[in-house]
Specification:
With 450 residues, the protein is an alpha+beta fold. It has three domains: 100 residues, 3-Layer(aba) Sandwich (Rossmann fold), CATH 3.40.50; 70 residues, Dna Ligase, domain 1 (2-Layer Sandwich); 239 residues, 2-Layer Sandwich (D-amino Acid Aminotransferase, Chain A, domain 1). The chain has 15 helices and 20 strands. A hairpin with a 2-residue loop joins β10 and β11. Bound molecules: adenosine-5'-diphosphate (ADP).
Length: 450
């Protein structure tokens, strides 16, 4: 096992990793930018190192500074959390060259899944259905037009390096195709420095259903069921739940086993998420994330398996002790991502939290690095915290979620709490009857109360 883990992240996920390390008796090193001097992960870690000024490129993405921090503190492993360097294969390789373990998948798998065209090819080879679309990068408008004739409109143009919904554009007709391609290409170039694009059939009312997996790199792999992340705004998830209201036990086992099999043949190491769109009873692979995800607590609540702890164990070379039959699902969990944003305009709202009170009681979990008096810096993502609620049934879970949202107080900044309070009272949400475009329609007609 590792002696000391450096956590190359900030916010709630840094705290989440720190908690797992403490429970395992592993010493922790926090790193931080000068904007995060007062951050909770810095306060709670055994040691901390300042790695640069506020912009992420100079601090949380600064590989030489992170290497120096490992060297100074003697950390023998790095947990990257999500975002930042978590899906950077080169970072994993550089750490290995310096005899530091990367707590994550093998670099070749990060690279493979980081190119979404390659990822789709691999998924197909491993027996998973993919969204119909181009099999390679689309070089020209003529080629795109030819493909459009095959698949029909509407089409979705996506970036091979995509992430966070960037470089994604819908084309509903031939005249829209040229401008959608140009916009997607410019966006991809600006966001990723790589502008390869591909086309997919645009699905009109699918659900986003993703399968959590764990592998030990030696051919053992299991699935931990699904999360339904269909409530999205601009392709960004806001609320996630598990199990999905759209699946029955047979469908769950079937897709889970297919995915676990694919991971076994890849010899996948660590935690990962295989994402699908689900429509008319069919699953279509869209991408795989080779890291821990924001919404991982949903799975933890319904399986009682600590995903971060398992990540650390298998990264240290331990065998996966869990077998598929050990994974038992119980009850229902829902997560709300509470962002420091105006709930109507979604404009970021950094600033000082004047009052902070988290809900409690049976089945309630709050993963957050916020506290009363904490000043949310303007440089990073706007996640203030995650409220995760568990119940024996979906109905009980929703009842608890309602009252937990009513108890939650975050004053001094705008947050998305009023949006969630309204959402849990919507009949479609109560019925579990929604798809990936539902929230956009809801937002167009919603009037929120403070
Ligand atoms: P990113 O890596 O940018 O998050 P994804 O491929 O994971 O991109 O897609 C993000 C979201 O975009 C999906 O959850 C879904 O809501 C939407 N999306 C992706 N592909 C399609 C498609 N073919 N048709 C309709 N919506 C899609």
């Amino acid at each position: 096992m590792f002696d000391k883990i450096l956590i190359a992240n900030r916010g709630e996920i840094a705290l989440r990793v720190l908690r797992a390390c403490k429970e395992l008796g592993i010493a922790t090193v926090a790193v931080h930018s000068t904007a995060d001097d007062d951050a909770m992960h810095v306060r709670l870690a055994d040691e901390s190192v300042c790695i640069g000024p506020p912009p992420a490129k100079d601090s949380y993405l600064n590989i030489p500074a992170l290497l120096a921090a490992c060297e100074i503190t003697g950390a023998d492993a790095v947990h990257p959390g999500y975002g930042f360097l978590s899906e950077n294969a080169r970072f994993a390789e550089i750490l290995a060259e310096h005899n530091v373990h990367f707590i994550g998948p093998k670099p070749e798998h990060i690279r493979l899944m980081g190119d979404k065209i390659e990822a789709k090819r691999t998924a197909k080879r491993l027996g998973l259905a993919v969204v119909p679309g181009s099999e390679a990068a689309v070089a020209s408008e003529e080629e795109a037009s030819r493909l459009a004739a095959d698949f029909g409109f509407p089409l979705l143009i996506k970036a091979a390096a995509g992430g966070g919904g960037r470089g994604m554009k819908v084309a509903r007709s031939q005249p829209e195709l040229a401008s959608a391609l140009a916009t997607a290409r410019a966006e991809a170039k600006a966001a990723f420095g790589y502008d390869a694009l591909y086309l997919e059939k645009y699905l009109e009312a699918p659900r986003h259903i993703e399968i959590q997996v764990l592998g030990d790199g030696n051919g053992r792999a299991i699935h931990l069921g699904e999360r339904d992340c269909s409530l999205q705004r601009r392709h960004q998830k806001l609320l996630e739940e598990g199990p999905s209201p759209a699946l029955n036990a047979g469908e769950r086992d079937d897709i889970g086993e297919k995915v676990a099999d694919a991971m076994r043949s890849l010899h996948y190491l660590g935690a990962g998420t295989v994402e699908f769109l689900h429509q008319d009873g069919q699953f279509y692979f869209i991408e795989m994330n080779t890291r821990i995800q924001v919404e991982h607590p949903v799975t933890e609540m319904i399986t009682d398996i600590d995903l971060v702890l398992e990540q650390i164990r298998v990264a240290a070379g331990a065998e996966l002790l869990l077998e598929q039959k050990d994974v038992r699902f119980h009850g229902h969990a829902i997560e709300c991502r509470i962002n420091a944003e105006n709930p109507v305009s979604f404009r970021p709202s950094p600033g000082r939290i004047l009052h902070y009170h988290t809900p409690g009681g049976l089945g309630i979990r709050v993963d957050s690095a916020a506290y009363q008096g904490y000043e949310i810096p303007p440089y990073y993502d706007s996640l203030v915290g995650k409220l995760i609620v568990h119940g024996k049934t979906r109905t009980e879970c929703l009842m608890r979620l309602k009252r937990a949202l009513d108890e939650f107080v975050i004053d001094g900044i705008d947050t998305t709490l009023p949006l969630f309070r309204a959402l849990v009272r919507e009949q479609d949400i109560v019925d579990g009857d929604y798809h990936i475009h539902w929230l956009q329609d809801f937002l167009a007609r919603a009037v929120l109360e403070e």
